[in-house]
Design goal:
Length: 67
């Protein structure tokens, strides 16, 4: 979420390749195919990078959690 309390406008990133850094030094690289108002993401042609290890994933859904 942005500081204004509104989710960021991700429309300009649709169908573009993104790098998303997650917890535990996990990096996900793929094409943004969809999102919702809660900032859950659908990433296509995904590569998961954890250190030197790479795993190809066809499609991933990344859920935004607030802790």
């Amino acid at each position: 979420m942005s500081r204004s309390g509104q989710p960021p406008n991700l429309k300009k990133y649709m169908d573009k390749q993104l790098q998303i850094k997650l917890n535990a030094n996990l990096l996900v690289i793929g094409t943004l195919r969809g999102f919702d108002q809660f900032m859950n993401l659908v990433i296509d042609n995904t590569v998961e990078v954890n250190g030197n290890e790479k795993n190809e994933i066809i499609m991933a859904v990344i859920q935004y959690l607030i802790r």
